[in-house]
Design goal:
By secondary structure, the protein is mostly helical. It is built from three helices and no strands. The longest helix is centred in the N-terminal third of the chain and has 26 residues, at 3-28.
Length: 67
């Protein structure tokens, strides 16, 4: 397993937690869980002082272009 693969395997649970919390909050607010809504919610839930690598990776994943 490459360094990159190990890195993402280790970060996966934290990224999933960030995404899961954002999805739950968007649904609680009865909003459509679109990529844009999730990115916005992540930015609201994790203000600049609280941003860590998992938050940045979650936003990056949501920002990837659709294939």
């Amino acid at each position: 397993m490459s360094y990159e693969d190990r890195f993402f395997a280790e970060m996966h649970p934290q990224v999933v937690e960030v995404l899961g919390l954002a999805v739950m909050q968007v649904l609680v607010e009865q909003r459509e869980p679109s990529r844009e809504a999730l990115i916005e919610m992540i930015q609201v839930l994790w203000q600049e002082d609280d941003v860590d690598l998992a938050v940045e990776l979650a936003i990056d994943v949501l920002s990837l272009p659709k294939e």
